[in-house]
Write a structure and sequence with these properties.
The structure is a single chain. With 449 residues, this protein is mostly helical. It has a single domain, classed as Growth Hormone, Chain: A. 74% of the residues lie in helices and 0% in strands. Helix 5 runs antiparallel to helix 12. The chain is globular.
Length: 449
């Protein structure tokens, strides 16, 4: 029997929550293990950069492959592979056979598989919810990520690391394995239908790049998101050193510090829909970036742990609001049969900017200090908020498509809805959203990032 959309979304969210729990444990345990091997800020920043480097190298290929294969199966296999890799790392830690360079290798391998797992989860969202439910589904996916990675995974990773350095990696492996098992409960086929001979991979990559290039709104959002990712990672890559050395917290307290960020993230996910109903999305996005910048600027000035953790919670809340809106906008505007490729382009630029920011942050901290990096990151984010406000003032019609279940009647480029949907009734065709028009001087806009 085929599952209902709500049930399929529930299984997908449950699987994502478990895999994010594994991610949260690992993202706390990895830097703690790295800090136990070295306190060099360049090497710590490099470890964070290595974890995100696969998004720069393989996002395009992973996205194109997801438009050729069953996305549920790809996600299942990727989570299984992550379980095996992290399980092997747990054994190496148990037998005291780790070095900082081994951590680099494992971070690279796990990050490579993650490009498939995370992109597949995003690509499955439009297949299990209606267009009108995209923002809600993205909010739930963000909440699952926050609960798993920071609310539960962060504290659990730090506490178990204190009990035994190999234990968090073992729990990480179990989380990925359970996430794979949960995907077995999602019935149906999730492979995009290909009409005629399957195109070459190179052709598919070109289609994704071409789609983005022809849409000025997506290009501008892409540039903004990449800039924010790099600027915020200047400081985020050094968070473990900020907490352990700057705030004088121990390893267990570091998880509690991350927990406050999780609480802030959950608050942001819960408030996003209310905020976008009360204010234009352009305003919400700009204010959220202001909140991010103000939080990091203040973190560079305070020395008291409670104040610093509250500020980190503010940053997490604001960044989640951004992620929820931008995820919903992507789903509303990108045709499903192109979603994997376009998401690959997006994450190559945005997530590929993260290792650049991490390396620059490590170098800047070695030149100045960790606290100064937070100040620099915060001030740059405040400047980015002003630029975002100005840029999004010209795209009211394109951004308004986020709220529409049906495309605009004058869409000139209808695109067939080619995703195979496991639903009892055929999925209707859906034209591609209208390409960006020339700006109108007095046009106000709402936006999603």
């Amino acid at each position: 029997m085929r599952g209902s959309p709500d049930r399929r979304l529930g299984w997908l969210l449950s699987s994502s929550a478990l895999s994010n729990l594994g991610d949260g444990i690992g993202k706390t345990a990895f830097p703690l293990l790295g800090a136990s091997l070295t306190r060099d800020p360049v090497l710590i920043g490099g470890l964070s950069a290595t974890a995100f480097l696969p998004w720069l190298l393989f996002s395009l290929v992973s996205g194109a492959m997801l438009d050729r294969v069953d996305r549920r199966r790809a996600m299942l296999l990727a989570n299984s592979a992550r379980a095996a890799l992290v399980g092997a790392l747990a054994l190496l830690v148990l037998f005291d056979a780790t070095t900082i360079w081994l951590l680099y290798v494992m971070a690279l391998l796990i990050g490579t598989v993650e490009t498939v797992a995370d992109s597949a989860a995003q690509a499955l969202i439009p297949a299990v919810v209606s267009r009108s439910g995209l923002e809600s589904a993205n909010g739930k996916l963000q909440s699952a990520e926050i609960v798993g990675q920071t609310f539960l995974g962060g504290p659990l990773g730090s506490l178990t690391f204190v009990a035994g350095a190999s234990l968090p990696f073992l729990l990480n492996s179990v989380g990925f394995a359970l996430a794979a098992l949960f995907l077995l409960a999602i019935r149906g086929q999730y492979r995009p239908r290909v009409v005629g001979p399957a195109p070459r991979l190179r052709t598919q990559l070109g289609e994704g790049l071409g789609w983005v290039r022809r849409r000025p709104l997506m290009v501008r959002l892409l540039v903004f998101a990449a800039a924010l990712a790099a600027i915020s990672e200047l400081a985020q890559a050094l968070l473990v050193l900020y907490a352990l050395d700057g705030l004088r917290l121990n390893e267990a307290a570091f998880g509690v510090f991350a927990l406050v960020g999780g609480v802030g993230g959950l608050l942001g996910a819960a408030l996003t829909a209310r905020l976008t109903r009360a204010m234009p999305r352009r305003t919400v996005l700009a204010l959220s970036v202001v909140g991010c910048g103000a939080a990091f600027t203040a973190m560079g000035l305070v020395t008291e742990p409670i104040s610093a953790s509250i500020l980190f919670g503010l940053f997490a809340a604001c960044i989640v609001v951004l992620n929820v809106i931008i995820g919903a906008l992507r789903h509303a505007l990108i045709p499903e049969h192109l979603f994997g490729r376009v998401l690959g382009v997006w994450r190559t630029a945005v997530w590929g900017a993260i290792p650049v920011g991490a390396l620059l942050g490590g170098a800047l901290a070695a030149w100045l200090d960790v606290r100064a990096v937070f100040l620099v990151s915060g001030v740059l984010q405040l400047g980015l908020a002003g630029a975002l406000w100005l840029v999004l003032g010209h795209y009211q019609r394109e951004i308004a498509a986020l709220d529409a279940d049906e495309p605009e009647p004058d869409d000139p480029e209808p695109i067939r809805h080619e995703q195979v949907m496991p639903a009892p009734t055929p999925e209707p065709t859906r034209p591609e959203p209208t390409p960006a028009r020339e700006p109108v001087a007095d046009e106000s806009a709402t936006a999603g990032a």
